[in-house]
């Protein structure tokens, strides 16, 4: 498990391209036959990926967590962005296919991931936050996520938002999680941009062609920076930073938050004309 520490606005303002990528980009997340994790000190969020092939991958504990097992004091959300798969949690099996989400509650001990086919493995994107209370482990299928359509083709941001783990969906302590799909011809996400000082956020970009890229914008609204991101890569967004992207083609992304509240509308919008 890799660790990433806090960076202040002043530090980020002075970073070059390599330094920005080292601090905020989470690449090599989906590796066949492995589970990969990055521990961020922003709200103690853990970003991970699991790609089981011919056998099961079991969730192991890490000494740095100072816990008896991974979810002793944590909760977890998992969204599959690959082939059909299954997740076993303490003897219960859940079929988690593409764009399905499984919430796994605090106190769950024995967790494993598997794919229906080694040739088309599941790609499980994982987000974990600290938790102070147990909530039931539950599955939400893509068809049950109550999609909301926003934006327009004229502004190149016609998109559909699927909310999974939030106040009116799968219950959690503090984790919020969902995904957004951009229509063909639309390339902008989360524009107009916003910040939310009470929650950090992580983005995971997927369903992007291998020969295309995304420019993810971060930083203070008047001191923006960008990181170039490719398919199946994630980016860590500090609470004081905007988090918006523009691709060379349409794509999808998973958004997830951890912090002080679960209010989806708790954000401070930034006018497009005020960005610098």
Write the layout of secondary structure elements.
Elements: E1 2-4, H1 9-13, H2 17-24, E2 25-26, E3 35-40, E4 46-50, E5 57-58, E6 74-80, E7 85-89, E8 92-96, E9 101-104, E10 111-115, E11 124-130, E12 138-140, E13 148-150, E14 159-165, E15 176-182, E16 188-189, E17 194-195, E18 199-206, E19 214-220, E20 223-229, E21 233-237, E22 244-247, E23 252-259, E24 268-269
Parallel strand pairs: 1-3
Antiparallel strand pairs: 2-21, 3-4, 4-11, 5-10, 6-9, 6-11, 7-8, 7-10, 9-12, 13-14, 14-15, 15-23, 16-22, 17-24, 18-21, 18-23, 19-20, 19-22
List keywords for this structure.
zinc ion binding; mainly beta; EC 5.3.1.17; isomerase; 5% helix; RmlC-like_jellyroll; 4-deoxy-L-threo-5-hexosulose-uronate ketol-isomerase activity; 276 residues
Please characterize this protein's 3D structure:
The structure is a single chain. 5% of the residues lie in helices and 42% in strands. With 276 residues, it is mostly beta strands. The protein has one domain (2-274): Sandwich (Jelly Rolls), CATH 2.60.120. The chain has a seven-stranded mixed sheet with strand order 1-3-4-11-6-9-12, with no helix packed on it. A seven-stranded antiparallel sheet has the order 2-21-18-23-15-14-13. The chain starts with a strand and ends in a 7-residue tail after the last strand.
